[in-house]
Design brief:
The structure is a homodimer. By secondary structure, chain A is of the alpha/beta class. The first copy, chain A, has 2 domains: 185 residues, NAD(P)-binding Rossmann-like Domain (Rossmann fold, 3-Layer(aba) Sandwich); 144 residues, N-(1-d-carboxylethyl)-l-norvaline Dehydrogenase, domain 2 (Orthogonal Bundle). In chain A, 49% of the residues lie in helices and 12% in strands. In chain A, helix 2 links the parallel strand 2 and strand 3. In chain A, helix 8 packs parallel to helix 11. The termini of chain A are far apart. Chains A and B meet through helix 6, strand 8, helix 9, helix 10 and helix 15 of A and helix 6, strand 8, helix 9, helix 10 and helix 15 of B.
Chain lengths: 337, 337
């Protein structure tokens, strides 16, 4: 039984100093006592502590006085923390978890906010964390949450999914504000796959917008896209109904419509004729969707899971197919439900 | 058994000369022999036949030579037609069906494209048509179909729902092009309620956009809105999974995001402080969502179906509540799934 003021007096580690990690650190600072913010770069840590802003990722947002940035993990975990908010790209997840595991005592609540999967193994982030960290109480936070909009205090909501009710309760206690709502969920598999797979559709959506069509075409793409990511996720053990919610359709809507989304921008630039390698090299932050597309389509093709839009994005990325070709393929294929 | 070329040689009546009726007449003209286009106004009929455009609703779109506009129903149904495409506002549906019933021989396929319900009775359009017309083979066409975009030939898709496979087959034969895909569906109840209820959310979405928030807030509104229209529709006999598809989430996305949608514009103007009566008076075409909101919320309240967004729109329309109040209510209410 958790005491009423437990979380207000808690210490929370936020791992990862990108835009979303920064926004989450600021949110959680409203509901806890002390936020230890782990960032990779010494200059960045010093600047955050000195200026109370993260100039690189969220320059316009003032950060709470409760946030202290560190690069040394022993400082972050000194004396123990009650919760760990995990906001790293999926590509570094396992390696970083191996390092951090020595600082974990097993009593923490761990909530990750990564929308991606492990390349090759197709493991979800909760699976990786469970394998690498000596801590059972793990969950995922995911939803239609463009970091800049959340940071500005625009009304938004998210989903916290876990097999453990205490993880859901902790997520609600730590993140809720009168501008940010938290919905609890038990379908961890569905929520994690929704978060990863929508990045594939965001690339498709950006690419399509390069052709300057209107809402009918985008609605068609996103709806049929949702149908295929549901098909895949249900095959992986997720629940269809999860995709009707904020972590499914909600996130899809926000990510696939906004130029704030990195994956959307990748698609848009592909449509304008840039090469994928050049686009990725030029981006400050990681576009998870490119690697997700490769892993997922190779898996789906081998298992005959029908994913025509994912296949189209794969050809766009790997074979330099044009967006017009992709669209023509999709519009003229036989109907299969 | 329908012959292969049956629909290519068919005669089709299109009832209703608004933007969507006009776009549907043009689509169907590609797949049949003769389109009889019933419009209310003699001048409009004459202008359509003379100029091959519908100046009032789709001025920029050239109409097929196969389309002939009439105001007299006996000319429309002369010698019989094979299909009737019904594109009238819900408010005139029953009265017009009573008039048209004498021209119907019962062998026709009837497909309606109305997104609304009967005020007061909450009857769906297929129910009204079944009551008034001596014809069993009825279906509904519904999806993310902004008329102007379809008319311009942008890629789009729709759903044809019916209890009769031959109605679905006819819908596919009559409307399919390489830019317009047709998905068959048997959940008539879900498709019709989705089409009607999304207009309520379009008003909410337009109103919210008046506050200039970004994609997180819109995604929150639409996703929680979808949850409540699913709740209502399932109570009325529809299926949840229908709402994951084009007639559900797809239509919601297109209608709630585009200033081309009349209901969206109603919401936007409400947010800017205009009164609902003045807005409706100034609009050329019908915004179904206003009456739908009234009927649905009165029904839901009496039966304790939880619909907080619909309730908010109701207060916006009927009581002059502000959008800020509506949003505050929604953000601070207790979580109930």
């Amino acid at each position: 039984m958790i005491e009423k003021d437990f979380w207000h007096n808690s210490k929370v580690a936020v791992i990862g100093g990108g835009a979303w990690g920064t926004a989450l650190a600021n949110l959680v600072s409203k509901n806890c006592l002390d936020v230890r913010f782990w960032v990779r770069n010494e200059d960045q840590a010093r600047a955050i502590n000195a200026t109370r802003t993260n100039q690189q990722y969220l320059p316009e947002i003032p950060l709470s006085e409760k946030i202290h940035a560190f690069t040394q993990l022993d400082r972050v975990f000194e004396g123990g923390v009650n919760a760990v908010i995990w906001a790293l790209p999926s590509s570094v997840c396992r390696a970083q978890a191996k390092i951090i595991s020595q600082y974990i005592n097993g009593e923490e609540i761990i909530l990750h906010a990564t929308k991606g999967i492990e390349h090759g193994t197709l493991k979800r982030v909760t699976e990786i964390l469970r394998e690498e960290l000596p801590c059972p109480r793990i969950g995922v936070l995911s939803g239609p949450n463009l970091a800049h909009e959340v940071a500005k205090g625009e009304p938004a909501a998210t989903v916290v999914a876990s097999a453990f009710q205490e993880v859901i309760d902790a997520g609600q206690a730590l993140f809720v504000t009168d501008r940010f709502r938290i919905y609890g969920e038990t379908d961890v598999i569905g929520v994690e796959w929704a978060g990863a797979l929508k990045n594939v559709l965001a690339i498709a959506s950006g690419a399509l917008d390069g052709l300057k069509y209107g809402w009918n075409t985008r609605a068609l793409l996103l709806t049929r896209g949702l149908a295929e990511i549901v098909r895949f996720s249900v095959a992986m053990g997720g629940r269809e109904s999860t995709f009707l919610g904020l972590a499914g359709m909600g996130d899809l809507l926000a990510t696939c419509s906004s130029p704030l989304s990195r994956n959307y921008r990748v698609g848009l630039r592909l449509a304008q004729g840039e090469k994928v390698d050049a686009i990725l090299t030029s981006m400050e932050s990681v576009a998870e969707g490119v690697r997700t597309t490769e892993s997922v389509w190779e898996f789906a093709r081998a298992r005959k899971i029908e994913m025509p839009i994912t296949e189209g994005v794969y050809h766009l990325i790997k074979d330099g197919a044009s967006v017009q070709e992709m669209l023509h393929q999709l519009m003229t294929r036989p109907n299969v439900e």
